[in-house]
Write a structure and sequence with these properties.
Layout (H helix, E strand, L loop, with lengths): L1 E9 L9 E8 L2 E9 L4 H16 L6 H11 L6 E9 L2 E7 L3 E4 L8 E2 L1 E2 L3 E2 L4 E5 L4 E6 L17 H12 L6 E9 L3
Parallel strand pairs: 5-7
Antiparallel strand pairs: 1-12, 2-3, 3-4, 4-5, 5-10, 6-11, 8-9, 11-12
Helix pairs in contact: 1-2
Length: about 190
């Protein structure tokens, strides 16, 4: 399996720090890709995003998405809180869990993702995750609510992940919010 990824993240217009966090970890044992959106914007949201980054950078890739999200919920205690989606990939098996309004889309597959209600670090009742085998090749996109969900992945299928993340950020970003996007291409081969 070959996994390639790109991302873009920008703070809200007029802010110096970013309340969104992107974590990408691609290893032979598995991959983790995530977007976490600290509530609001500015330094308080950036504090939550920094805590999320530190936790996700060190979590075991052998865990389930629900376990990772439960740990992230604990790691964000005492912050303003966040929304977030975490995906773990082992071969063609995708395990995803989301809390709040961080979207997960695919270029060719419809995912039956259930975004759990609540705020990471504050109040989440359950951590339901979603698992499926992905149809390879596939492009998976995660983005914060600082990017409009009304973009067409199919029209960008010939673009690489880097160009796709740049184009979507440029054309669909909401300047009044922190904005983040992760584009992951999963293909056969090495």
């Amino acid at each position: 399996m070959r996994v390639s990824a790109a991302h873009r993240t920008l703070p809200c217009h007029g802010e110096v720090v970013n309340g969104d966090a992107v974590v990408l970890r691609i290893t032979p044992e598995g991959s983790l890709f995530s977007v976490v959106d600290g509530l609001g914007h500015g330094p308080i949201a950036a504090h939550a995003a920094g805590r999320a980054t530190a936790y996700l950078a060190s979590v075991s890739l052998a865990s389930s998405a629900a376990v990772v999200m439960a740990g992230l919920h604990q790691a964000l205690r005492g912050t303003r809180g966040a929304a977030g989606t975490v995906c773990l990939l082992h071969g063609v098996r995708l395990d995803a869990c989301g809390v709040g309004n961080v979207e997960l889309q695919s270029s060719i597959q419809r995912f039956s993702v259930v975004l759990n209600p609540g705020i990471l670090g504050v109040n989440v009742r359950t951590m339901r995750s979603f698992e499926c085998d992905v149809s390879v090749p596939v492009r998976v996109v995660i983005h914060s609510d600082g990017i409009s969900r009304h973009f067409d992945l199919a029209s960008r299928r010939k673009m690489d992940a880097e160009s796709t993340s740049e184009a979507i950020m440029t054309q669909h970003r909401k300047p009044y919010d922190d904005s983040s996007i992760v584009v992951v291409d999963i293909e056969t081969g090495r």
